[in-house]
Amino acid sequence: MTLADPARLASAAAAAPVVDAEEVARLAAERRERIARWLLPFAVFLALIGLWQWYVVAWEVPHYRLPGPVLVAETLARDFGTLSGSWWTTLRVTLMALALAVLGGAGLAILFTQSRWIELSLFPYMVVLQVTPIIAIAPLIFIYIDSHIARVLFIAWIVAFFPILSNTAIGLKSSDHNLRDLMAIYRASRWQRLRYLQLPAALPYFLGGLRIAGGLALIGAVVAEFTMGSGGQAAGLAFRILESSYRMQIPRMFSALILIVLTGIAIYLLISALSWLLLHKWHESALKRET
Amino acid sequence: MAARLSAPAAAPAAGAARPLLLALEHVDKLFGRDVVALRDMTLEVRPGDFVSLLGPSGCGKSTALRLIAGLIQPTRGRVRWEDAQARETLGVVFQEPTLMPWATVSENVWLPLRLRGVSRRAALPQIEEALTTVGLLRFRHAYPRELSGGMKMRVSIARALVTRPRLILMDEPFAALDEITRFKLNNDLLEMRAKLGCTVIFVTHSVFESVFLSDRIVIMAARPGRVIRELGVSEPYPRSEAFRTSTDYVDHCRAASEALAQAMEGTAHDG
Hints:
B: six-stranded mixed β-sheet, disordered N terminus
């Protein structure tokens, strides 16, 4: 064999488009996965609804035991007037509790990084607050706090604030030690160190805590309504569930439940979107989602 | 023991005639109750010096740098600054690039000025000047994750340059880079220094790097951390790539290696 003519080789390379079978397969697999990520859960959802409807019809299950999905949807549409008011009540408590959890959790975390003494003194009590079953102290809260909204908010806040506190506190301490040295060399003030180094470093941790707290705030709001339940105009979704169970209005109970679940999903998606928005330019956790 | 084997007379270019920039005077540093990180270190640095601190791990070279940076205070002795301006504008480069991942290249370089309350607009000329010096102006809007290891280190150097420092402290800045990148950055560092005329104190554990870069090599030993001797490298600046393969270079490396071996031997006896 002789050495190949380089000119001929080059022209052959230019003529045939370079295709790597392995890469083509990989790209196709990636595309399939992107579609499957949405399609599969949706298919499972449809299958479950179908199975449910079939079961109810085929076995003639009475609607006061298990209403079929069609009946639940009809009830949701018919009672939406009442349910939407309750949904708004629950949503408002959830969002307010989450806002307070952000203020309280992040605020305490910042306070802790500013003073080691305060942190050492208070942190154990934050843990106590977290591990005490909220249901167990609900009767006390009922006695000590007069305002209904304050009771409900307080309970939802206790449930939601801890993940934000502990995550943010870890995040504030996680800044690179060389960067801290750099701040010291350039004589950064306490405030500058917090503003330019600790807060940005804590952001991914805070957002991780927020994602957990979002779900917990909703759970907290529901638990608070169960224990502090009050009827009338201000009744939340949890109260509607209790009320429906007393009256054996099971389809309505399911409708309320669906609204709660949808709210939880919406909160999760919103916080995930916020995370992506804030982190996608620089943080690993958000970068992985891009590829 | 621990006496200095040579006087700093080896320093080149009529050192005594030039004013002092800073001096360590009989500095001791103890960590904990009984760990002697540094014993009786005396070092005079004059404007324009390129001083390398060379020695094994635990010889106190990084401790010396931290003392100069003011991050820690000497147990005994003192760090005397003769040039207040140099202290004000001090530039520092660490072993890791130490960039803020959430900030762009230009925001990272802005940091030292930002901490002094200089607005972005006002700092822009200095930021661009520093980035031009390290050859990364094109990447000013990039985030650190988009850069290679060598480029990140250049950004780190640009950040140290942005205050137009008279003295730069470098703590093994190129140790984590591959050799080809390191050689390139060594050359670039000498070029920058020639252009900016600043003084450099450079910590390294590479004999070759210290000989190529510096005009004074301070050889240190561990346990306790101390200065063993000081060597001068007479080769004038600018030094080109040709210096790396010259017999002079090899001779200097041999002398430094021998001194370092002596330092290590002393350590073994101490231990």
